[in-house]
Amino acid sequence: MKIQVEHIDAFSSLPNKGNPAGVVLNGDDYTEAEMLKIAATVGFNETAFVCQSEIADFQFRYFTPGHEMNLCGHGTIGAVYSLYRHNRFAAKKFTIETKAGVLPIQATVEKEQLVVTMQQTTPKFRKFNGSTALLAKGLGLTETAIDSRYPIVYGNTGIWTLVVPIKELASFQQMVPNNQQFPEILTEIPTTSIHPFCFETVHSDNDLHARHFSSPYSGTVEDPVTGTASGVLGAYYQTYVKKQTSPQTIFVEQGIEMNRDGQVVVHVTGDDQLQIAISGTAVYVDTIVINL
């Protein structure tokens, strides 16, 4: 059985930048086991499968090479862009069913470029009670690299990640993660990823610089440009760093150390209860044909 998987790069308008996502538009044709096998064969951090839904306009399912995810930012951007290429939706606003809930999507063309905005779930945070020294070591750093002015916390706007404040931009080039150690460091949520960030940026028009290191259960090491984790970072910024009257827009750069420079725009609204959305662009790269 030959399967067509579109390679879409999300959070960039340039091919081979941003975050590569596989997109399968006929997801209903495959079982869950087949979806996982397709994602493993493609080998991207995530492959998105577009399926029919009884409660939304589309259902999106997301698979890493190792397991299914509740939500994936770059997979969503990539799938919406693929649907747009094939004239599969007419309205600017529609909804998608995910395992994180039914989420609104907005797709608009700005300067001949499709910009996709996806709502995320209500932010949640949990305290990190583990060893800061072991955490730093797991990233290939010393404990002094961590910015103690701000808390290390687990955050969730659809999936959990650990947000780690770092003092200097230079530390990001030095990071060598030991993903296999993550579960023993992240004892509260052993299956989660780690998302270090700092306030120094490579590009002056951005607010935050980040990297994203995968859970060892994902079958990958690093995600170039992460939409859901950037949403968490936006909520973290409003909650712990610079609380101000919403709306607030935060520009996050990521992928630079992997030579896959990308940008995520995070929209923060609400004061008592934060609402998070992210925006990004995408570009078609290629169609991959695999045999299952």
Automatic annotation (TrEMBL):
SUPFAM superfamilies recorded: Diaminopimelate epimerase-like
Family from the record: Belongs to the PhzF family.
The entry's keywords: Isomerase
Family annotation (InterPro entries): Phenazine_PhzF-like
Protein name, per record: PhzF family phenazine biosynthesis isomerase
UniProt-listed Gene3D superfamilies: Diaminopimelate Epimerase, Chain A, domain 1
